[in-house]
Amino acid sequence: MLENILPQRISDCINGIPYNSICELRLRVDEDTIINIQGENFYLNNNSFSKNKIDNIKISRAEIQGILSRISNNSLYTINDQLIEGYATIDGGIRVGVCGDVVVVNGEVKTIKNISSLNFRFPHFVKNCSLSIYPYIVNNGVIKNTLIISPPGAGKTTYLRDLIYQMSVRENLLNILVIDERNEICSIYNGHDYIKLSQVDVYSNCTKKFAFNNGIRSMKPDVIFTDEINLSKDIEDIENALSSGVKVISTIHASNIYDLKNKPLFRRVLESKMFDRFVVLSNSDGVGTVDGIYNENLKFIGV
Question: What is the pTM assigned to this prediction?
Answer without folding.
Answer: 0.84
